[in-house]
Design a protein that fits this description.
mainly beta, single chain, two-stranded antiparallel sheet, 335 residues
Amino acid sequence: MTRPGPRCGHSRARRMGTVSGFAVLFTLMIAGVAPFSVGQAASISTLPPSPTVAFGLMCTRGYAQRLGRCVAVKVPPHAYLDASGDFWECMRGYRRVDEGCSLIKVPAHGHLTDSSPGKGWECDRAYRQAGNACSAVHVPSNAYPSYDPYGPGWQCARGYEALQSRCVAIKVPIHAFLMSDSSSWQCERGYFDDEGTSCVPIHVPLHGYLDDSGHSWQCDPGFRKEVNACLPVQVPAHAYAIYNTLGPEWRCERGYAAHRSACVAIRVPQHAFLVAAGDTWQCQRGFRQTGNACLAIRLPLNAHLDYSGNAWECNRGYELQGDKCLVARYAWTTQ
């Protein structure tokens, strides 16, 4: 005979009902609503609607939280609820005045704008604000209106510059051109500016060339600049000319080193080789430099050559003690 099981479902329902009742009571106490009397059945249907009580402090759209309650937002005429739903904004063409929306009076030759707080309008191009009106700006010849509210209200056309209240033509000399800003000029390549009045041709001497700017010149490698000429550089034997304005104008060939004004041959000892630059030497791997010679490195027990190949270091688990590699006193191993 099968014994009936415990009535778990009814017990769980009673527990859930108790918890739900406490949750409802706690919510109403926060909202300022009187709790239910003893014996009164507490159900969701007895709760006030959501626009009245702020459940979880979240009001529905069109209501704003005030002291734990949701109060309807009063939208004045010519206004609408904003994106948040708990405040309002004035329609285009109106601006906020106290708790209402007042019509913006746009003068002739003006237009509505959102970039002028308080006023709500700006004057059209070629007009400037004068009190509550827009007055025409006098644009001189060879100029055009601008939107600059702090300037004269106009700018000169390309090729002209402002002179008081006029636009006068920019005098561009021969062998010059207007710059991109249209307010200045620059000499063509091969010419230099002579005190802002004319463009004078650049005379490039023999063994010289125009530099990247096009307005000055430099000497070829193997020559140095002297006033208006390029003079040959004295290059010693076993050297070649280079372009260098801050140091020697020549460099020794590979296998030679500079010594004063000459190039001296590098003596490479046995078991050595020239480095990549070719101006000095280095001992081969397994040898150490001692003076002008390379001597073989004697590796002690439990040692190996380091990354340079010209010195040694102890193996892992050993430490240097004197000139020997002994077991490290604090050695550790990984499992």
